[in-house]
Amino acid sequence: MKKNKNIYIETYGCQMNFSDSEIVASILTENGYDLTTEISRADIIFVNTCSIREHAEERVRKRLQFFKSLRKKSPGLIIGLLGCMADRTKTALMEEEQLLDLVAGPDAYRHLPQLLGQVGSGQKAIDTILSADETYADITPVRYDSNGISSFISIMRGCENYCSYCVVPSTRGQERSRSAMTIVNETRDLSEKGFREVTLLGQNVNSYCWEEDGEKITFTGLLEKVAAVSPLMRIRFATSHPKDMPDELLHTIARFPNLCKSIHLPVQSGSNHMLGLMNRKYTREVYLDRIRAIREIIPGCALSTDIIAGFCDETEADHQETLSLMEAVGYDAAFMFRYSERPQTLAADTLKDNVPDAVKERRLKEIIDLQQKLSLARNLEVVGKTVGVLIEGRSKRSENQFFGRTSTNKVVVFNKGNSLPGEYVNVMVTGATSATLLGQVVDLKE
Ligand code: SAH
Ligand code: SF4
Ligand code: F3S
Predict the structure, then answer these.
(1) Of the four, 292, 317, 329, 330, which is 20 to 30 A from 265 by CA?
(2) Which CATH number applies to 150-380: 3.80.30.20, 3.40.640.10, 3.60.21.10, 3.40.50.1010?
């Protein structure tokens, strides 16, 4: 019997890309390919790539050089590039540097079997056309690299917010929502398979909109439907844009115990001057009003954010406003980046990347140091309290310990006892660092 070709997929970038790799895995396994997690067994290597910062692209380039060296040793090896770098770098990487046999953009994954066929007949294959309506709604992702407990579902694709620094609108195209029914069905399927947590993904989930049987379903409506699938299934979502975060959504989160009490609300900067240049469409005051609403409607809700240090024209005063906003909110966690100019963005075309590297670096360090302090303070508030934890698996530190997460998305490490991954346990928190809570299970089974 002819052996199926083995595909190895390596994924970079955001959760959306990891979710896309599961769609790719599904399309390929349906078409007679096998998946492997060992690169040494691969006949085809796919790299699902990210363009968000220059550093992300550099990492992929280095990896491709390594794959090229593997191809020298096994000449039949096929190397393909997927995802956000596809359109931007196809000419350089494929034609000039001869690193690739195949390039497929985020909306071209259904064509992968044909593209691989083309490569098989000795041609190079490229498809980077973006679509206005592709959502892969009918494809059941293959959860090939999963802990069997938490998973994600893409509910929309693309982005039309055009934040001036951001490459995503150009790499992923028009915003489009996916059918609500297929999202609910996929959640039910995961629940039946024993999954206990799902994260709904989109670049701006608040603008989710779908019409079905004469009913207009907003993100709030979708959350209610997904939350109703099973009380045992926790629901998270990312990312919310502060410019459209209605109270209605917050009331829904407060009402359903399985809607996680943790909101990721990227602020990017605390300065109105920067927010204007970034085209974020809200002010510091509007943002802080949303934080007030969250605190009022969902008491105890955790908050996380994204921050960019050293954007174009950023002064010391602008930077201080970011630090003061961080203090005012008291974030539980943050992803913090130094500004990296990206081609084909509004900022690259119209603004100057004029904050010196050393200044960007120092400001970023001040932001990170402050966040560590804030995270520790937030975590210390939980010490002495009992929290509900969904167990995800064995802790890296010790065989005798599990780790899991609270509804507020805090990682908790505790002695195993006779509990099992996938179970909910109550844990008394006994200690905390800025990254982790330590505790003891309080309701051990007989
Ligand atoms: N759609 C989401 C996430 C986009 S990418 C949102 O709107 O929040 C994740 C984060 O990367 C962004 O929130 C931003 O903080 C950061 N980012 C995006 N482009 C960047 C750039 N050019 N340089 C540095 N950080 C960037
Ligand atoms: Fe980028 Fe802004 Fe869209 Fe987020 S909302 S993906 S930061 S353009
Ligand atoms: Fe990167 Fe594309 Fe996600 S640029 S952050 S992989 S949408």
Answers:
(1) 317
(2) 3.80.30.20
For 102-122, write each residue's pLDDT tens digit: 999 999 999 999 999 999 998
Give the C-alpha distances (Å, rounded to integers) separating 372 from 47, 367, 433.
Answer: 33, 9, 9
CA of 187 to the centre of ligand 2 (A): 26
Walk across the sheet containing 78-83 and list its strands: 34-35, 6-11, 44-49, 78-83, 102-104, 125-127
Q: Does the pLDDT of residue 237 top 70, yes or no?
A: yes
Number of Cβ atoms within 10 Å of the Cβ of 369: 11
> From ligand 1's centre to the CA of 188, what distance in Å?
31
Establish whether residue 158 lines the binding site of ligand 2, counting it when its CB lies within 6 angstroms of any ligand atom.
no
CA distance 77 to 380: 52
Question: How far is 399 from 244, CA to CA, in rounded Å?
Answer: 44
The mean per-residue pLDDT over the stretch 265-280 comes to 98
Average pLDDT of the residues in 398-407: 95
Mean pLDDT of 388-397: 94
Distance 51 CA to ligand 2 centre (A): 13
Ligand 3 near 53 CB (within 6 A): no
- The two beta strands, 6-11 and 44-49, are parallel
> Is any ligand 3 atom within 6 A of the Cβ of residue 47?
no
Q: Tell me how far the alpha carbon of residue 189 lies from the centroid of ligand 3, in angstroms.
A: 27
**Which residues, at least 6 apart from 357, have a Cβ–Cβ distance to it below 8 Å?**
none
> Which CATH architecture group holds 6-127?
3-Layer(aba) Sandwich (3.40)
Beta strands in 318-407 (DSSP E): 333-338, 386-394, 401-406
Q: Is 104 in the pocket of ligand 3 (CB under 6 A)?
A: no
Confidence of residue 246 (pLDDT cuts 50, 70, 90): very high
Is the pLDDT assigned to residue 101 strictly greater than 70?
yes
Q: Which atom of ligand 3 is nearest to the CA of 16?
A: 3
* Residue 351: burial class (beta carbons within 10 Å; 0-12, 13-18, 19+): middle
pLDDT digits (tens, 9 = 90+) for 127-174: 999 999 999 999 999 998 889 999 999 999 999 999 999 999 999 999
Cα gap 149→31, rounded to integer Å: 27
Tell the CATH superfamily of the 386-442 domain: Nucleic acid-binding proteins (2.40.50.140)
Token code pair at residue 421:
């991954």
The residue nearest atom 7 of ligand 3, judged by CA position, is 168
Cβ neighbours, 10 Å, residue 155: 26
Locate CATH 2.40.50.140 in the chain: 386-442
